[in-house]
Structures
1.
Amino acid sequence: MIIIGVAFMAVSLNIFLVPNRIAAGGVSGLGVILLYLINVPVGVTILAANLPLMLITWWVIGFKFVVNSVIGALLLSLFVEALSFLQPITGDLLLASIYGGILMGIGTGIVFRAQASTGGTALAARLINHYFGFTIGQSFLFIDFFIIFLALVFFNPEVALYALLSLFVASKVTDLVQEGFAFSKAALIISPQSRQIAGRVLEEMGRGATVLKAEGAFTGEEKEVVLVVMSQGEVSRLKALVYDIDPRAFVVISNASEVLGEGFRLRT
């Protein structure tokens, strides 16, 4: 899994990001900048930046946090250089930033799903969190925006804006890969006929239903709330079923980006 993820990241860098000078945050973004400034290979920068970060993090935080990053960082450095023969597909900055971000996000998501990382930004963010008290998320943003600022200084504002776009795309795709592509919906139904609704959901939709005890904040009246999780295509059927029983039912339907368990994806 880690090898597949790292391969996606290396391909993204070699055919989209590096040839178009798109430094989309992180150590790899720093590598893009240094390649054009002083001709240091991106893989060398990734390895050179990660080694001291690993040692410092090991000393300050502990070995357990570092161990999952070692393999990813070494493989990424190796793959970036091994695949450097790949030719760029496009010189269009918009296409390069979008598709580079997509491939980078797929690779990062796969690595994260393997409960690993490629070091770099993750290690630096943990150190910033330890010494300065910023959250991990804030630290990630600070580092990535700093790299993009360097791209603005050493390249030009247009390239920096495309780097920001690529970072955004990669972030969204990473979340998508981690959470899965099968989106589900969760419905909360408040109705005096809650038991009847739950029964028909079981019989007609073949879905489980959970009846929760609740209390109205204003009236103090005890109520029952029916929780139903379903596929996106079953939403219309559920609404028709509910309003056939109680036209005045209060229904809230929200996205459930990941559902694990019987009837859905089993945890692996």
2.
Amino acid sequence: MDYTKLASQGSVEKTAEALKKRGFIPVVVENAKEAFDTIKKLIPQGASVMNGSSVTLEEIGFVDHLKSGAHGWNNLHEAVLKEGDKEKRAHLRKHSVVSDYYLGSVHAVTEGGELIIASNTGSQLPHLAYTSPNLILVVSTQKIVPDLDAAFERLEKHVIPLEDEHMKKLYGMGTQHNKTTILHGESSSTKRAATVILVKEKLGF
């Protein structure tokens, strides 16, 4: 299977409709620039922002924009990275789980509207599951698959090997698939805004 092939228009529409039925807020855009512009419109001045490690966010320009400081947001990720004391850094990371906004991506999304995320440490999973009141996930349509079986196949055969290679180049150590989260839907009782930006351009793994 070609895991880098963009989904058809019909598949994108089907996925967006399924996401909506499951309580997510789907936004379909043509390219990386439109995805980035959408993010900037969604996050107000003064909001606290945390993001996970994401090639997709790097490729659309979000990470560089966040580092630049030219946005008016409270960059919690930067605060964590700048802290030299290990105990204080761990404390800041724990408190970052209640950021106003959390941004990241997923490793697969089914045509039925389910989102699949794998993790080594699990540090991003609290945000995804509950703690951040506003969730923004940027997802290339190459990550759309028919069902959960295909999602896990994509994860094991495509994503993890590439992520392992990527981490080795960056940090000299690979990654492991230790934890998996499946977002089957978003309950209206949480009052969360869980936005999924589907991008019709190849981004990430």
3.
Amino acid sequence: MSLGYLLRRILTFFVVMWAATTLIFFLPKLAPGRDPIQERMAMLNATGSVSSADISEMVAAYQKNFGLDQPLYLQYIRYLGNMATLDFNYSLAQYPAKVIDLIAVSLPWTVGLLTMTTLISFTLGSLLGGILAWPRAPGWLKYLLPPLVTFSAVPYYLLGIIFMHVFAYTLKIFPLGGGSSVGVMPSYTVEYALDIAKHAVLPAMSIVTAAVGFWTLAMRGMTVTTMGEDYMILAEAKGLPATRIFFWYALRNALLPQTTALALSLGTLVSGALLVEIIFRFPGMGTLLYRSVSTFDYFAIYGVVFIVIVGICFATLIIDLLYPVLDPRIRYHRA
């Protein structure tokens, strides 16, 4: 891998980051009819914490404190500086809580859920898709194809609603939602870990069920394409074992475009997972983003979306740099 290519990829990473962060800065500003500070004051007034006479004075104080009384271009410059230093300011809806503290609580839940579901669905789907395309595969496997096609077309959140109704509401096998049982104190114990796992089963099942179908169909198509390649015919002519041909020739060569699809679909996967978190009230980034959008909390929206964008861009960069490991024929330099 050449240094020039690495520098170009890193530069592209930062350009995409800048474009995305700029977009998420202006979109909430363009939404009409919503003022998070006015809504915050109205809520405090309803609870008796602030009198009606003091609202105007407190609105001005809030705007000055958060820099919302400045021109838009100054707000944008300040915003870029805050994003660069991960200083997302205070939450407007949950003041005086800082956005970075809210993210620190929610992020591990989302990372754990996404990591587990992505590894399971990608590995299982790729292996199953390769086997379905293999001529010597067991005949009964072909009956898995229709349900896999069906599940791959169903959105994550819709599967989540179905699973919640069947397994939580009707059969009462799993909890309806949440990250842990009410009254259970967080601790580094096996009981607490099992309780979290029980609450994560339905959200994870919703994502994995749909994603496995997608990766299976994609891998099946890629493997069928590799079956007619010259190196496959040569391997069979040499009399190599069928398992070696499958794993080292068919599956390995089909994994490269499959990995490309993984990098391209990370955004869809993350957005679908965030919707699933909202449905199951899973205490991750999706639920935090939903609450922030509901209360029009500028700074919380900025922080959550920025972290999600950084994660997607960084994962895409890592996958791109791993290509030579999957296929030694790939070299990132000019011939």
4.
Amino acid sequence: MDQTDIVHVVEVEIVSDVVCPWCIVGFLQLRKGLEMTGLGARIRWHPFELNPGMAPEGQNLTEHIVEKYGATPEQSQASRAQLVAIGQELGFAFNFTDETRMVNTFRAHQLLDWAAERGLQHPLKLALFKAHFTDARDVSDINVLVDVAEEVGLDAGPAREALETNERADVVRQKENYWMQNGIQGVPTICIGGKIVLTGAQEASVYADAIRASAQIPAV
């Protein structure tokens, strides 16, 4: 999605959580949809916590799914297998194990908010998806977050300071509340061109049609 030499750039707002597998799936399908249209996008990510009350130590993923959604371990395993297959089709590796954990993401959202002002929110978001789902890194841990920030070109010192002082905590809470007050109850929620809102991970063709409609370009 290189914005160089692009005639039309679509504004895209994505409300998501970094531990939501369907959020990265939705983004990858969106990216395919953009490629189908030949248009570019200016993407902004917004915070949503699937589990705002998650304890600092996190929770085993299978236990969490059984407890929160009432799924059996077998159903949880089947869902993971489905995600692995979808990820392979889209070029993303989901590496689930029996030790995979659900973690608190409030710090990650604070870092993303901080990174937005430095023009690196988007690469940081994708790096955090990879850190959690592919590399099994704890994205609730300050040291991990600082390392990931540095990997995408952010300065480690200021990133650590922003996290340790919680300077973005109030702002992130306000943004989370804003989206919830506007009816966002599940993620991903993707707003295209300020006109079209799609909830849940859709097929690339659905995003392509929405992008064309937003840009007032006839479907092909």
